[in-house]
Design brief:
It contains six helices and six strands. By secondary structure, the chain is α+β, with helices and mostly antiparallel strands. The chain has a domain of 72 residues. A two-stranded parallel sheet has the order 1-2. A two-stranded antiparallel ribbon has the order 3-4. The chain is globular, with a radius of gyration of 19 Å. One of its GO terms (molecular function) is oxidoreductase activity.
């Protein structure tokens, strides 16, 4: 059987791999000039920066096994963050007080974002992962979602504007 997969992001590529290992004839089509979807590395201010969904946490089960099978080395990273502003990299811990001390956001914006994040965590903790209707309000571009909940100043400082 011939199977066509539209999209060469991680989900499409994992699907293609699984089908090919079962002996299926698989073709993958991608609209952009590269495979990988949201996994991407960019060069910013002479630094290599991961700009997409490029990390695996200890909760992931499928991708680490896939990486091992394909011989892709994984390495632990430190949980440090940085903000690039005016072509300079500024290291900081991604929490409210550190972001304020680093000048990334003001106290008022950090407090608003913290309050909103706590509300989101409480709401999403009660949501049924199997019911897509309960997640519909977060199925929007990240910048718009963040700006609506956490404020424009926080969003511009942490995510960037779009």
């Amino acid at each position: 059987m011939r199977t066509v997969i539209v999209g060469a992001g991680i989900a499409g590529l994992v699907c293609a791999d699984a089908l090919a290992r079962r002996g299926e004839d698989v073709e993958v089509y991608e609209a952009t000039s590269r495979a990988g979807g949201r996994f991407e590395t960019a060069s910013v201010a002479d630094c290599r920066v991961e700009v997409g969904a490029n990390f695996l946490s200890s909760t992931y089960r499928v991708l680490p096994r896939l990486a091992k099978r394909l011989g892709v080395p994984l390495r632990p990273i430190r949980s440090r963050a940085g903000i690039i502003t005016d072509s300079a990299v500024m290291a900081y811990k991604p929490n409210g007080p550190a972001m304020v001390r680093a000048g990334v956001v003001g106290w008022r914006d950090a407090a608003r974002a913290g309050w909103a994040m706590a509300g989101q965590v409480r709401r999403l903790a009660r949501a049924d992962p199997a019911d897509p209707a309960q997640w519909a309000d977060i199925d929007v571009p990240a910048v718009a979602w963040c700006a609506e909940r956490f404020g424009r100043a926080f969003t511009d400082a942490v995510i960037g504007s779009a």
